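stage 2 :: seqdesign
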């Protein structure tokens, strides 16, 4: 039994799954596809697509099921599939799949490879032929499929368990504390630099005020300089992080995604440090 759980949105790649199962059926007429999920309208559309692909009689649609029933479906299956065709976020069902100890067949895309590997799953090209080959390989070699399932379950227990989550949370809190210290130190450095600059430029300040500049004008000038100084430091940090991420990806093969929101947050915090300590 080949099982898919989850939503029936277009990016999930159900069209690829149906086309792949049509190929699988020619080699293994005994294979059955079960899909747990989908709203009623989506199920009817998917049912028509399965029939058009020639697998309507070997495909079972259960509709949306309570979360409490999904583990039973996972344990009753031989192969778990995730044919997602695009996207970067990891499907939540992958973590359920890992814990089940069943063989996982998934497309070799970032959406999966952030968590899955060739040791814990059967990764395939995002094509009907490639996905069918992955399913057929798992059906033809139960020992290999069982080994991948055990590796996946071990990964879930060591890296994605509740205890692992608590440990990551503790590490994140510790890292946040270190970052906060660095921000305060950086702010103090900026404050002392600006104090030294003001002391050295007393003559310039006096001349500016003599020709009409107000105290607010002078304060605004040095505040802008403090913000620019902190932004330069923030930009250097962003570039260093991007280069370090690229080197890690190239040397260790880890899939690292730099979030635009992280860059925006870095710029905002750099500006805030400059304003707070430079005012």
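stage 2 :: out
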């Amino acid at each position: 039994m080949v099982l898919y759980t989850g939503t029936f949105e277009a990016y999930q790649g159900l069209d690829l799954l149906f086309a792949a199962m049509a190929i699988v059926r020619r080699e293994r007429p005994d294979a059955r596809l079960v899909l747990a999920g989908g709203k009623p309208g989506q199920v009817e559309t998917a049912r028509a697509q399965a029939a058009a692909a020639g697998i309507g009689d070997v495909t079972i649609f259960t509709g949306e099921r309570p979360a409490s029933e999904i583990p039973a479906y996972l344990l009753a299956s031989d192969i778990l599939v995730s044919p997602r065709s695009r996207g970067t976020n990891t499907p939540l069902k992958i973590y359920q799949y890992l814990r089940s100890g069943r063989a996982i067949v998934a497309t070799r895309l970032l959406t999966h490879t952030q968590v899955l590997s060739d040791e814990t799953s059967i990764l395939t090209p995002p094509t009907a032929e490639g996905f069918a080959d992955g399913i057929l390989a798992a059906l033809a070699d139960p020992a290999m499929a069982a080994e991948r399932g055990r590796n996946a379950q071990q990964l879930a227990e060591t890296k994605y368990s509740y205890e692992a989550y608590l440990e990551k949370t503790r590490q994140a809190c510790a890292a946040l504390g270190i970052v906060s210290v660095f921000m305060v130190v950086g702010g103090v450095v900026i404050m002392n630099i600006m104090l030294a600059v003001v002391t050295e430029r007393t003559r310039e300040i006096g001349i500016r005020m003599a020709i009409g500049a107000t105290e607010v004008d002078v304060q605004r000038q040095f505040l802008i300089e403090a913000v620019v100084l902190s932004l330069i430091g923030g930009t250097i940090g962003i570039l260093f992080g991007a280069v370090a991420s690229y080197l890690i990806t190239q040397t260790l093969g880890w899939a690292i995604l730099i979030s635009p929101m992280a860059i925006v947050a870095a710029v905002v915090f750099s500006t805030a440090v400059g304003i707070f300590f430079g005012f």
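stage 3 :: structure notes
- The longest strand covers residues 59-63.
- The chain is about 65% helix and 10% strand.
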